[in-house]
């Protein structure tokens, strides 16, 4: 699609669907990674105890089995530690120039706020969250005075298998990044919420949401300012997706998970600039 058309649609809707973004080899390699780690899908967390869920997350090297809420399924956080195929996604040519353009990386630099692989079984979903009403620092979209791009976070959700009706697709409220009215499900006692922790309902049943269907290898990129979540997965089996969130370099990593020396030594200079945008500074070693 022509750049001008993409700009118009991204501005208007707050999201773009990118088709066929990655090779079939990369797709099957990522699916193979999931198959190889299936025991973590079946038993993502350490046995129940008095500990909070976050104390029960497991580790595969530097990758953490995480969830925001148990119904979201398992997030393999820090999946860039999972091998070359996940490293390639950091600055993949199918989307990196769009990220740079809309985040305005010439001024803001570029970083990844969070990267994970999500596997979600039957009954799983995400509650509705975000929207134009939320005063969260990285939910910017444009510079107010000049109108230049200044998107504070763009999520890239890549489907590793087809995601259709009943598969628990992501849902978005098109245009809601520009909406000042509070989405009805995000209003409690006259105040706007960031996240619907009140109703416990899947986002797919909320007003004005649109299900986004993706073929394996397609991706949806959306401003985190848009009101979104996912529909409940009613079909058997599991939804497989990868999420990388791009932000200005001033936005710190969400969970501060470790980068191994091996990973850092393998990354290209361009990838390293994204993963470690603020290089650690140390005084010179005294002898
Ligand atoms: O899992 C989904 O479909 C939605 C994910 C989501 O809310 C996000 O990536 O910010
Ligand atoms: Fe989200």
Distance between the termini: 58 Å
Low-confidence spans = none
Bound molecules: 2-oxoglutaric acid, fe (ii) ion
Percentage beta strand: 15-25%
Number of strands: 14
CATH architecture label: Sandwich
Characterize the largest beta sheet: strand count, sense, and whether it forms a barrel.
8 strands, antiparallel
The CATH topology annotation reads as Jelly Rolls
Secondary-structure element string: HEHHEEEHHHEEEEEEEEEEHH
Strand order across the largest sheet: 1-12-7-14-5-4-3-2
Helix content: 10-25%
The rounded Rg comes to 19 Å
The CATH H-level superfamily is: q2cbj1_9rhob like domain
Number of individual domains? 1
Shape: globular
CATH class: Mainly Beta
Judged by helices, strands and strand pairing, the structural class is alpha+beta
Mean pLDDT: 97
Number of helices: 8
Summarize the helices and strands and which ones pair or pack:
Blueprint: H1 3-13, E1 15-18, H2 24-36, H3 38-42, E2 59-60, E3 63-66, E4 74-77, H4 84-88, H5 96-103, H6 105-108, E5 111-120, E6 126-129, E7 154-159, E8 170-172, E9 187-188, E10 191-192, E11 210-211, E12 219-223, E13 228-230, E14 239-247, H7 261-266, H8 269-275
Antiparallel strand pairs: 1-12, 2-3, 3-4, 4-5, 5-14, 6-13, 7-12, 7-14, 8-11, 8-13, 9-10
The structure holds 2-oxoglutaric acid and fe (ii) ion (FE2).
